[in-house]
Design goal:
Layout (H helix, E strand, L loop, with lengths): L14 H11 L6 H12 L4 H11 L10 H13 L4 H49 L8 H39 L3 H4 L17
Helix pairs in contact: 1-3, 2-4, 3-4, 5-6
């Protein structure tokens, strides 16, 4: 991946630099222009330290003085997370797969809830039908057929529910193995939701 010409070389910045940036960002004596210059540097510095400083500054009272702070944070995060070699590219793609797996699991959980809801409501109706069947005043001729049909539907829904629950279990296990395979340090605890805005060549929408 080709780096933007304004991207800073992380090797040129030591702990002393970050301490200086932190002191200036949270000093009441720092001018607005200095704040902007520091945020510009941090936004083009692909390191966790730079990201952390920008995130902390975002919560400060003077953050509003840098109108494009959000853009600086987003750009800094982009460059910080961008892969630099084949191994990182592989792990970056794995993060995308985690996001896709989360979507799939959420979809399956919705189906599970739908089956569970159907079973619970049909059981309530079945209970009502059985009580009606015992009443002498009951005039519903096909009530026994209704009871049998409803019992069959409950069995079908129960089988479907178990199938979905099993698939959720499988997908969660696959997801965990994919997560364990990610060894790039800055990707390990990254929120897969970030990958919702990242597109890969050949990816289907």
């Amino acid at each position: 991946m080709t780096k933007h010409k304004d991207i800073q070389d992380p090797k040129k910045f030591s702990e002393t630099h970050y301490k200086f940036f932190k002191a200036k960002l949270f000093s009441t004596e720092t001018s607005r222009e200095e704040l902007k210059n520091i945020c510009m540097i941090l936004g083009h510095l692909p390191t966790k330290e730079a990201q952390d400083l920008l995130d902390k500054f975002k919560k400060s009272e003077r953050a509003k003085e840098v109108e494009w702070l959000e853009c600086a944070i987003d750009e800094g995060k982009y460059w910080y997370l961008s892969p630099n070699n084949e191994k990182e590219e592989r792990d970056f793609l794995a993060l995308k797969m985690l996001y896709k797996k989360d979507e799939k699991i959420d979809e399956l959980m919705c189906k599970r809830d739908e089956h569970d809801f159907q079973i619970r409501t049909m059981n309530i109706e079945l209970e009502a039908l059985k009580k009606l069947a015992k009443e002498k005043s009951n005039k519903i001729k096909d009530i026994k057929y209704r009871i049998v049909a409803l019992q069959d539907l409950i069995k079908i829904e129960t089988v479907s529910l178990k199938e979905v629950e099993k698939e959720i279990e499988i997908q969660e296990k696959i997801r965990e193995k994919i997560k364990q395979s990610i060894t790039t340090e800055r990707y390990k605890d990254m929120d897969p939701m970030y990958m919702s805005e990242v597109c890969f060549d050949g990816e289907n929408f």
